[in-house]
Amino acid sequence: MSAQLWTDRAREHPLECDHCHYPIPGDPEESDDGRYCSIACREAAADESTLPDPEAYKRFVTGVEPIDSLVPNGVPADSFLLLSGDEGTRRAELGTELVWRALERGEPAVVVSFANPPTATLERFYGNGWNVLPALENDRLRIIDCFTHRLDDRDEFREHRTDWATFVGEAAGDAIVAVRDPSDRREVANTLHRALDDLEMTETGLVTIDSLDELESLLQEQLVHDFIKDVRATVCKARFVPIVAAATTAGQNGYPEEEYVFDGIVDLRLTDHLVADTRLKQLAVRKLIGGEVLPQWVTYEHEPARGLFAFGPNTDPQQVYDLGNASPRANGPR
After folding, report:
1. Range of 213's domain?
2. What share of the chain is helix, strand, coil (3-state, %, to 5)?
3. Which of 59, 65, 110, 114 is most buried when burial is the number of CB atoms within 10 A of its CB?
4. How many structural domains is the chain composed of?
5. What distance in Å separates the CA atoms of residue 39 and residue 58, rounded to the nearest whole number?
6. What's an example of a GO molecular-function annotation for this chain (predicted)?
7. How far apart are CA 189 and CA 187, in angstroms?
């Protein structure tokens, strides 16, 4: 059947399958309790198995303004996304905000931390005014600690923590899972899967990996590739749980050159070509398999509590920045 004929038939039969919820392109398979697009769906429904509406879990809106402005129909939930950016582009803050927006939606999240101890990872939230303590206590946020066991003297590290860091570490104790050998990619992957099982993360939630650069420092290039390939298959594709990982600018060495392993790539850059004597941050979506993308750069800035926000090419930087101290204005354009 030609594509045009298939489309015409679908228009003539605008029914939705009671099992898979997709349009019925031809004559429906009738049953006492509904209409189905195929015998497989009819038999599955007869076995009392149900599927959720695909729109409820197959795409998600990140809640981060600059990204959502470029991806009008949402991000496919089975995506492994790479945040690839220069130093100074607020790449770490973007990863933190993505987790916070998931928690705001009522979804669980897992942070795999290679670059920082768990208390420092949590401090990124508090530094933005985002209190994650309730999410930790309600078992909606899990931190996989791939940092602490790399320290030569872990006891000394704990002894010299501030009162605040000690409090946060103790309050989050049940939500922190230590990986004893972060250089063992299978141990890291297995720990991630256990966390997903504990939080019942299938068709919901988000996983972030704070630094593929740190992972590369622990593993050989091929092992990093294998780790990404494995968790992409077992987490993103099997569970419909997206993973977002951060790395320095792609194309330098190692895994970034193998861009095909990522479903989407978000580029972050600094540019001084737009406004004299002002270095601005810009973001673009280089690719997104299965998603619609606007092919343009968005200029953005970051502000505590607000997160990343976009502003247009005709905006006067004086409206966004207090150029005297190079920080975003609290009353900038909103």
Report:
1. 55-328
2. 35, 25, 40
3. 110
4. 2
5. 23
6. ATP binding
7. 5
Residue 308 has a CB neighbour count (10 Å cut-off) of 22
- Rounded to whole angstroms, the Cα distance separating 289 from 54 reads 17
Q: Which tens digits make up the pLDDT trace of 78-102?
A: 999 999 988 899 999 999 999 999 9
Q: Who's near 227: CB < 8 A, 6+ residues apart?
A: 185, 188, 189, 215, 219
Among 52-56, 110-114, 205-209, 243-247, the range scoring the smallest mean pLDDT is: 52-56
Same domain, 224 and 280: yes
The set of long-range contacts for 50-53, using a CB threshold of 8 Å and a minimum separation of 24, is 50/19, 51/19, 51/20, 51/21, 52/203, 53/21
SS3 of residue 136 by DSSP: helix
The answer as to whether 210 is a domain residue is: yes
Q: What is the arithmetic mean of pLDDT over 50-76?
A: 89
Query: How far is residue 163's CA from residue 147's CA, in Å, rounded to a whole number?
Result: 20
Q: How large is the C-alpha radius of gyration of the chain?
A: 22
CATH of the domain at 8: 2.30.170
The length of the chain is 334
Q: Which two tokens stand for residue 332?
A: 């900038």
